[in-house]
Amino acid sequence: MEQQRLLVFVGSYAEAEESGVYVYAFDEESGTLTMTDSIAGLKNPTFLNVDADRRLLYAIAETVNQSGQKVGEAAAFAIDAISGSIQLLNREITVDSTTCHIQRDENSEFLTVTSYHGGMIGLFSIAEDGAIGQKLDVIQHEGKSQHPERQDRPHPHSSFYSPDEQFMLVADLGLDRIVTYKLDHDAKKLIHQSQVALHPGAGPRHLTFHPNGGFVFVINEVDSTITSFTYEKETGRLTTLATVSTLPAGFEGENSCAEITVSADGKYLYGSNRGHDSLVVFAIDERSGLLTLLQHISVEGGHPRHFALTPNGRYLLAANRDSDNIVTFEVDQNSGKLQFTGKSVTLAKPVCVVPVYLTT
Known about the structure:
By secondary structure, this protein is mostly beta strands. It has a domain at 52-140. The chain contains no helices and 28 strands.
């Protein structure tokens, strides 16, 4: 009889000779993580994507080309769900600069990598065996915004496919824009569709769709806010609704934001603060898309660069880069609020955590 096993895949900052990608088994009764594998050989495999159906893991990394220039790399791994181990399928140079994000469409036809430093997005095919395939398209952003250091040039930070796979939304921190591209499945290209400007100095980083498909929420790294939008699925167009702070009133310290996600039931939104070192929880009005603050809670560490809810929504795992730990929080199913379980694991510079159920 087939069983489901919850594995957690972790990316980190690491030198190539160090372990950089980790696999943990997660015990949903106790909230504990137990390492089952770790892989060295990749430099800074900081962001991951998992294809649970095909048991494949995709990681970005960085390397140098023949000219000695720093460039992006991506690696594909096969996952053994029973042992909780991974095995390299292939690795390929992607775009002509280091990358910060990797995303896959639901049909496993395309991979997208995003280059913060290079200001570009690369579209790649996925081979039949799940390996990283050919370069299909590269889009270069142009322009700047108001912050003299953070926004002197384009800095796309992420790319997310729309629920119907027709569009791809790119949050560009350097331009204060979310740029929507149409995904041309026949030509295998990205076609500019539209864009929406955020308030100057926002610095959009990551975004998430509401489960009803009618709203998009973006977390703004530079000014520690979250902006809500309505989303037209026919055109991919975003219309701004409102912006709220991720910080408690009266906080005066340095802070930047990182990750954002919405609960599977669409009732709650979660974001991370680096500096205040907290998770913020909002209730979502599912008719208006507006947010109401519910909670700030310490991440029990420093610099929560990423976090994720487990698939059933019972737990949240926060990856704290500067305190070298992943911390487990329990989610109150009635209120959406978080409570520290007392459980954490130590590993060097974790910056991405992806929990998925796999069939064994």
